[in-house]
Amino acid sequence: MPDISNRKLILGSTSAYRRELLGRLNIPFSVESPHVDEAPLPDEHPAAMAQRLALAKAHAVAARFPDCIVIGSDQVADLDGLALGKPGTHDRAVTQLRQMRGKTVIFQTAVAVVCLQSGFCQQALAPVKVLFRALDDAEIEYYLRQEQPYDCAGSAKSEGLGIALLDAIESDDPTALVGLPLIRTSRMLRAAGIPLLATQRLGT
Predict the structure, then answer these.
(1) Catalytic one among 74, 136, 137, 172?
(2) How far apart are CA 113 and CA 75, in angstroms?
(3) Does residue 80 have an active-site annotation?
(4) Per-residue pLDDT tens over the stretch 58-99
């Protein structure tokens, strides 16, 4: 496979959460909007939807920057096979949290790394099992007024006050719940030839 370690890295997302997470790796990258239609396909399972959209986002940006390495990611909340995306409004967020209270929800977070010029393409799925507390309506209303997580799949920010909505989290890639599974992303970036540790970048 061609050496692509010197290529620029692009995060194909306008999500502030993913930008902050990728920044933790301390490697230079830029951000581009993928402009991808995120509507589900008929009878599409949430896991398949997340994987399709992650790859579509990566390819959409890579088409504009074919010599760059592009990361695409997507998250869909999976409630017994029902896909719950970003609520967008307060009323929809209330509906989502009512649906999820007392239940286990799988947050299907997918990531793809693509470089069109070299032909590099890898993708992975990082499911996170989340058990929601049996929330009452007053708790739901208070939480939403405080945090307004209307741009988050499943209407909850686990990195903030949303952690109080939960009874348990099960995951082998903890940052996946926030929006970008850094363990899987790091693995793919290393496969693409991007060193992540300072000693590797310095060649020591």
Answers:
(1) 74
(2) 15
(3) no
(4) 999 999 999 999 999 999 999 999 999 899 999 999 999 999
